[in-house]
Write a structure and sequence with these properties.
single chain; 331 residues; mainly alpha; two-stranded antiparallel sheet; 51% helix; disordered N terminus
């Protein structure tokens, strides 16, 4: 019986120790599904793996708290009853009861322990993660649920697939796949703030493209960042090759600059330069690209010199972008 009690406590502690942010909002009891519905729409990434692990942990906690713990408590009570004068039996019952309660408390308090440690270790000012919380990087429903694939060209990335598309929309109707860069009206407003004009069909196309390019802006930097890619923002417009597109009022306003950002000068071969001056430029441009209006303005700027296909669908792997273009741009 001591072995069973120890095994039970070990299971609870192990589950709690690896419980990630999702567990803090866990719905107990949880009986599935372990693999989220709709997860077969893209290649599973780190975020999806964490989601599945969290679901398994929730299921184990459910089994432990709803089924195992009551049985262990009942068993300890039984030992108390059948050993009224047996000191050894009563002591064994006390240990089982104590270990059960302590194990449950530790498992349920694991989130607080992990959060306290990560609050000390996590650098929220690291490149590409400014303003984010540590759990937003690895929790479900956000960054990393899908593996980022090669994008529209060697410097543009492709994230999860675009939303389900059933047909064209009326020329005067704005689409909204979500918020921010996935809302066509907001895309058009951002472009206007930067001094560019987008038609409704262009805004709708960009709103759709934001899904496969960056998960609607959830992923600011390209999957190949630092390896020859300077792509950033909701529409993954490169900071080096298309750096001039970030020299607009929307981007300057996003970072409080009084003049051009000169993003291209901070890169060499698609990679950030290492000198302090260039690093400062890179960080400023990363912050600007993360702004919805700036990113939309940069995309609108790019459309002045390239077609949708050239900018976002030249790569064979960009099937989702091609679908967006074919459906909403009229081309």
């Amino acid at each position: 019986m001591r072995f069973r009690a120890s095994l039970f406590v070990l299971m609870l502690v192990a589950s709690g120790a690896f419980a990630l942010p999702h567990l803090a909002q866990a719905a107990i009891p949880f009986f599935g599904p372990i693999i989220p519905n709709g997860s077969n729409t893209c290649a599973a990434g780190w975020g999806m793996l964490i989601t599945v692990i969290n679901n398994i942990i929730e299921l184990l906690l459910t089994l432990a708290i709803v089924f195992v713990a009551p049985l262990m408590i009942a068993w300890s009570g039984f030992l108390f009853v059948v050993n009224p004068v047996n000191a050894g039996g009563k002591e064994q019952a006390k240990k089982i009861l104590t270990n059960t309660i302590v194990g449950i408390v530790i498992a349920l308090a694991a989130w607080l322990i992990v959060d306290a440690v990560m609050a000390v270790l996590y650098n929220k000012n690291a490149p590409g993660f400014a303003g984010t919380t540590w759990w937003s990087i690895i929790s479900s429903g956000g960054v990393g649920d899908c593996i980022n694939l090669a994008g529209s060209n060697p410097t543009l990335g492709q994230g999860p697939g675009a939303p389900s598309i059933t047909g064209s929309t009326a020329s005067g109707s704005y689409l909204s796949f979500g918020s921010g860069p996935c809302s066509a009206s907001i895309v058009q407003q951002g472009a206007q703030l930067g001094g560019y004009t987008l038609t409704v069909s262009q805004a709708n196309t960009l709103a759709c493209i934001a899904h496969p390019e960056s998960s609607c802006g959830a992923v600011n930097l390209n999957y190949n960042w630092g390896k020859g890619s300077s792509a950033a923002g909701a529409f993954q417009v490169t900071l080096q090759g298309n750096g001039s597109c970030y020299d607009n009022p929307a981007c300057e306003q996003a970072v409080g600059a009084s003049g051009p950002l000169n993003c291209a000068s901070g890169f060499s071969g698609g990679n950030p330069k290492s000198d302090p001056t260039s690093q400062a430029i890179v960080q400023t441009c990363i912050k600007a690209a993360a702004n919805t209006s700036c990113s939309a303005a940069a995309a609108a700027c790019l459309l002045q010199t390239q077609t949708f296909t050239q900018a976002w669908a030249a790569d064979p792997n960009s099937s989702a972008q091609k679908q967006c273009i074919a459906t909403y741009s009229g081309s």
